Amino acid sequence: MKEKIIRVCDAKIASKGGNVGLSFYAFFANKNDDPELLMEVAHWWIMEMKLDHFEKAEKIRNLVSAM
């Protein structure tokens, strides 16, 4: 999941610039095909990191890269 988050952040930054924001839903398909992983990422985003619904892609990339 870490590599996917970094890949998605890099793609968003490349296409929309350094100020682009995203939510944790950006890392998942529109189908709910892996609810356990979705909940794990949502818990990390909301409960552990105390992030807002939308955060800068650069911030998320840096957080995940440091893990």
Automatic annotation (TrEMBL):
Top-level taxonomic group: Bacteria
Pfam families in alphabetical order: DUF6500
Name used for this protein in its record: Msl2237 protein
